[in-house]
Amino acid sequence: MTIPADGIGMHLYTMRDVLAEDYPGTLKRLADIGYRTVGVSGRYDHSADEIRGFADDAGLRIVLEHVGYARMADNWAGALADVQTLGAQWVVVPSIPVEQRSIEGFRTAAAAFTEAGKAARDAGLKLLFHNHGHDFNEVDGTVLYDILLDVDPELLGFELDLYWAVDGGHDPAKLFQEHPGRFPALHVKDMAEDGSWEDVGAGKLDFGAMFEHAAAGGVEQYLVEHDKPTDSWASAERSYRGLTEI
Q1: Where is the Xylose isomerase-like TIM barrel domain (predicted)?
Q2: Can you give the residue range of the structural domain that contains 16?
Q3: What's the sign of the alpha-carbon dihedral 117, 119, 123, 124?
Q4: What are the C-alpha distances in Å from 1 to residues 31, 115, 201, 210, 225?
Q5: Rg (CA), the chain
Q6: What is the per-residue pLDDT for 85?
Q7: Is the dihedral of CA 109, 44, 242, 245 positive or negative?
Q8: pLDDT one-digit tens code per residue, 20-44
Q9: pLDDT tens, residue by residue, 150-186
Q10: 82: which residues sit within 8 A by CB, 6+ positions away?
Q11: 41 by DSSP, 3-state: which?
Q12: Global pTM?
């Protein structure tokens, strides 16, 4: 398949070292590489309005922002207003607290996501959850992630991190098929032979096989991510090429 150009983005966690030094310059250089969209992760002392301006100047569209789990109970309305200011469509909770990694804890999270998802919907946004590998742990015969998949699809979608899904023992293609339309955004993160992170296209994950079913999953945005690149810019350029060649 060919990924639409306006669906290729960068999750800015990858670029955190250079963002801290020059946020607007980083966005412009990402646009020069070919990226069209970004996912925000960290403000670096800039306001939502300033970051929106940086993105507009660079010709990039902000599609989502990561907002901590605790924020759902602490001025969630303010968080949603900031996501609106950014011009994004999705507000993403990136993880569930470690003390809630149990069946009861995930049920508590599911209830919180239901209420937060209603508020997001009322604000013209959609709430997504971003996974790690441990979210697929099985406890007493129940896969924790399945508890979240049972939340009303109108109120909760998912930003599927492909690396962490595979790390957790799950096949993204199967998830796309079994839960259609639930995965509007992806973290496209590759896995090295030793299990560590790798630039997109340079590792062992079969993205082509996954993406054959991306349409069923509702995928709109393919956001590159690398948790610990040796050189952020080399990684960004190599991953862009890798993603466009899938």
Answers
A1: 28-223
A2: 5-153+239-244
A3: positive
A4: 23, 37, 15, 10, 20
A5: 17
A6: 98
A7: positive
A8: 999 999 999 999 999 999 999 999 9
A9: 999 999 999 999 999 999 999 999 999 999 999 999 9
A10: 48, 65
A11: coil
A12: 0.98
Q: Does 19 fall in a domain?
A: yes
169 located within any domain? no
CATH number at residue 20: 3.20.20.150
SS3 content of the chain, % helix, strand, coil (to 5): 50, 20, 35
Is 93:158 a contact under the CB 8 Å cutoff? Answer: no
Do 184 and 219 form a contact (C-beta atoms < 8 A)? Answer: yes
Which token pair is 110?
Answer: 């599911």
**Residue 55: which H helix or E strand, with range?**
helix 48-58
Count other C-beta atoms under 10 Å from residue 132's C-beta: 16
| Residues with Cβ within 8 Å of residue 74, at least 6 apart in sequence | none
Q: Tell me: the pLDDT tens digits for 85-110? A: 999 999 999 999 999 999 999 999 99
**Surface-to-core class of residue 188, CB atoms within 10 Å of its CB (0-12 exposed, 13-18 middle, 19+ buried):** buried
What is the structure's pLDDT at 2? Answer: 85
**Measured distance CA(214)–CA(197) in Å, rounded:** 22
| Angle 96-102-105 from CA coordinates, rounded to 5° | 55
Q: What are the structure tokens assigned to 88, written together?
A: 């994004």
Q: With pLDDT > 90 as the criterion, what percentage of the chain qualifies?
A: 99
The answer to the question of residue 209 being in a domain is: no
Angle, nearest 10°, between helix axes 23-33 and 48-58? 30
* Domains in the chain, number: 1
Residue 52 domain flag:
yes
